[in-house]
Each structure stands twice: as structure tokens, then as C-alpha cells.
């Protein structure tokens, strides 16, 4: 037993030396290397980890961070908790070599968990770590993170041993916002106002006095969708508004568009939501089209849709979908009509997002050529590898988080066949 212990110590020391020496040898990673020196425990954790991918911001990436951003303020104020959270959000479970990344995004989880908090609220509150996406844009590997941020890999596949991959990126991976912050910044003001008016009993990340919720999926109607049913909203009481909004929420299930198929899932309200992938590759929930998928939040994922969902449609027949009809002709509330002013006051616009073209053009729904999910790497329970995932359940109708996260996690093993 003593010999095994000594061997383990020697191996750990060698791994730490490898990581440190690799980072130290890269001139354009000197800022990252310097920052890491302030977190010896994190360096030790990374050095002993297996089956991970590190996205390493270059010096220029750090220099490009706006001072008024969350990352810029953390660095300027030397906020050790925020900086530690930032660093762990650049380390991902599983190996993702550049040559295996596809045009359909794969949603992967970092080591950033709910143990990193600011003012009592975690930077991320997903089970298993914060999500980001990796996707191919032409010949470039791109990481999709919070606030619609894209980070392009500038140098790929620096290997440390046989279980750690480092990619250099041109932009730090961003923290993800709360639901309310996202809808305000993206100009989804009618939903933001409806959410505030409904005063739901759940904490989406901004109100610690309510019941916390994480690992959720929410479908956010755009402004036009609310305007199309203005007459219904005029006569709706608080209970009705709460019923409608909770019908847009799926609890305990992170559903990315890449995992969608012809399935049904229960909403938080209790009624079922019917999902359909049309022949043209578009994704639908009941008779509402997903017009902007996979918005990463601090504790869930949001999809923007073009119609407000009606809880009375909980037995929706997907044969009734009208894929070529305008959204105004697919209103889910009978006899609804627009009004000049909605019954809740929209907040002051704080639009700060400019949507990158890639997020409007990548393949939102997985194709037949995409890789299936599996798990690779060591099974050492003490190693922070990607062993906390499993294959999709039969039929894919529940816990679609597994399919969404892992649709493509066979990246390494497929290359090794």
C-alpha cells in the first residue's frame, strides 16, 4: 500500500509539472499562467484531473475584455471568488479535439458549480457544472458561452499526457446571465414584464427569497407573440397569467435543441408540451416555432419562440402544426386579437446584445450524421472527469438533458476506433 501511495504522489507531481511547464512555455498564455499562480489549489486540481479540455484565453484575449464587463470588473477588483469562478469555467469535462467538432453544437459542462457565489447567488447553478457549446464555424472551432459570447480557438490540441487537451482562444468564456437579465438585455420586454407581474414563486436567479430552481428549460415568447394575444391578456387574472407562464417552463430537465425529436415533456404547470422537428429542420413546441434556440443561462437554458403557449393545448396534435403560416395566424388562444397597449408595463429597454451571425445559422437540430453519446476516460472517483453522464433513456422522452449534453460526446472514442 505504501508503494502505491508513493507512486500516486510521484504521478501527481509529474502531472502538475507537465501542466505548469506547458502553460509556462507558451508566451501568449503568460497572463493566464500569472493569474493561475494565485490559485494553487486549482492548479493542483487541474494537474491531477483526467479526461478534461482546457480553453485557455491568450494574453490578447484578456486585454480585449471590456472594463465594465463582469469579467473586467472581477479582474480590476482582484475579486478572487469571481476570478476562480472564471478560471473553472474554462475547464470542461471530457476531451474535445478540434478535428471532432461538428457544425451541430455539442453542449458540454465546465467545472464551474454552485460553490462559487457572489452576494449569496452562485455564478452557476447547474447540476454537474455550467454549460457552454462547441461548434464548427467554417474551419474554426468556436465556444459558445453566456451573453451570446463566441470564443474562437486560435491554436488547437496542445496535449498534456494522454488525457488533457488545451485549446487557445481569442476571447474569455463569459458567465451566463439570469433569465431576467437576459430578456432585458435582448429586448424581450413583454416576457420580462409578464414575468415580473406574475410574481411566480420560483427564483430564476435574481430573488433569493423565493424557491430556487435550476436545471430548467424555458420557452420565451418574443414581443410580437404577446402582442398577438393582447385581448386575452387584458382579461387575464393573476392566476391565469401564472398558469400560462409556468406552462412555458420545464423543470429538472435541460433540453437543448440538438436533443429534440417528436416527443412530449411535462411542463411545470402540469400539462404536456409537444415537441416536433419538421422536415425543414425547424423545431417546434406545440404550434410555436423556436426562432432562437439554446440561450445559456446561469441555471437553465432558454429558447425564444414566436407564439405564446396555451395550457389548454396540453394534448396538442403535432399533425396540426402549420409550419408555413405566419405567427399571427398560429395564435394558440381562440379569438385573440392585438391591442394598443398590454396590461403590464414593459421595463426600460437595456438592449446590449448584438447577435453573432453564427448563432443564427448553426444547425439547431441534430442530423443523422451526428455522433451518439458515450463516455470515455478514467473511472477514478477522485478525479474530476466526465463520469457523471449516461446514455439517453429509452425513447428520449424524459431527461433529455442527457441527449443534449452528450450528442457528440463520443468525440474521442470515435477517433480512436
From TrEMBL:
Question: Which residues are the signal sequence here?
Answer: 1-15
Q: Which residues form the FAS1 domain?
A: 16-173, 175-309
Give the matching SUPFAM superfamilies: FAS1 domain
The cellular component terms of Gene Ontology attached to this UniProt record, alphabetical and capped at eight, are: fungal-type vacuole membrane
Q: Which Pfam families match?
A: Fasciclin (PF02469)
Q: What processes in GO biological process is this protein linked to? A: macroautophagy
Instruction: Answer yes or no on keyword Translocase.
Output: no
Q: What is this protein called?
A: FAS1 domain-containing protein
Amino acid at each position: 500500500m505504501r508503494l502505491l501511495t508513493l507512486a500516486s504522489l510521484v504521478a501527481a507531481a509529474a502531472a502538475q509539472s507537465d501542466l505548469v511547464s506547458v502553460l509556462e512555455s507558451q508566451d501568449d498564455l503568460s497572463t493566464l499562467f500569472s493569474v493561475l499562480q494565485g490559485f494553487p489549489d486549482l492548479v493542483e486540481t487541474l494537474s491531477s484531473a483526467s479526461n478534461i479540455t482546457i480553453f485557455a484565453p491568450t494574453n490578447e484575449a484578456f486585454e480585449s475584455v471590456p472594463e465594465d464587463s463582469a469579467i473586467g470588473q472581477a479582474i480590476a477588483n482582484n475579486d478572487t471568488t469571481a476570478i476562480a469562478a472564471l478560471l473553472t469555467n474554462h475547464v470542461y469535462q471530457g476531451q474535445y479535439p478540434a478535428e471532432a467538432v461538428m457544425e451541430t453544437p455539442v453542449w458540454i459542462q465546465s467545472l464551474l458549480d454552485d460553490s462559487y457565489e457572489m452576494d449569496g447567488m452562485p455564478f452557476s447553478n447547474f447540476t454537474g457544472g455550467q454549460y457552454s457549446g462547441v461548434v464548427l464555424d467554417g474551419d474554426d472551432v468556436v465556444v459558445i458561452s453566456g451573453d451570446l459570447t463566441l470564443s474562437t480557438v486560435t491554436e488547437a490540441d496542445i496535449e498534456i499526457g494522454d488525457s488533457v487537451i488545451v485549446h487557445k482562444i481569442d476571447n474569455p468564456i463569459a458567465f451566463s446571465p439570469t433569465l431576467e437579465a437576459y430578456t432585458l438585455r435582448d429586448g424581450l420586454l413583454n416576457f420580462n414584464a409578464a414575468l415580473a407581474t406574475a410574481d411566480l414563486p420560483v427564483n430564476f436567479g435574481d430573488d433569493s427569497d423565493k424557491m430556487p430552481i435550476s436545471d430548467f428549460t424555458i420557452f420565451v415568447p418574443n414581443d410580437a407573440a404577446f402582442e398577438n394575444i393582447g385581448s386575452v391578456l387584458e382579461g387575464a387574472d393573476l392566476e391565469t397569467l401564472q398558469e400560462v407562464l409556468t406552462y412555458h417552463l420545464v423543470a429538472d430537465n435541460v433540453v437543448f435543441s440538438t436533443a429534440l425529436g417528436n416527443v412530449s415533456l411535462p411542463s411545470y404547470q402540469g400539462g404536456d408540451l409537444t415537441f416536433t422537428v419538421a422536415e425543414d429542420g425547424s423545431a417546434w413546441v406545440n404550434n410555436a416555432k423556436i426562432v432562437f434556440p439554446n440561450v445559456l443561462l446561469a441555471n437553465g437554458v432558454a429558447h425564444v419562440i414566436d407564439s405564446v403557449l396555451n395550457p389548454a393545448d396540453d394534448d396538442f396534435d403535432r399533425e396540426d402544426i402549420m409550419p408555413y403560416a405566419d405567427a399571427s395566424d398560429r395564435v394558440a388562444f381562440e379569438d385573440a386579437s392585438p391591442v394598443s397597449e398590454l396590461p403590464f408595463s414593459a421595463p426600460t429597454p437595456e438592449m446590449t446584445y448584438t447577435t453573432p451571425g453564427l448563432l443564427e445559422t448553426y444547425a439547431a437540430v441534430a442530423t443523422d450524421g451526428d455522433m451518439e453519446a458515450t463516455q470515455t476516460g478514467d473511472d477514478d472517483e477522485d478525479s474530476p472527469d466526465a463520469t457523471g453522464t449516461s446514455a439517453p433513456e429509452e425513447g428520449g422522452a424524459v431527461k433529455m438533458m442527457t441527449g443534449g449534453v452528450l450528442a457528440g460526446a463520443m468525440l474521442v472514442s470515435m477517433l480512436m476506433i
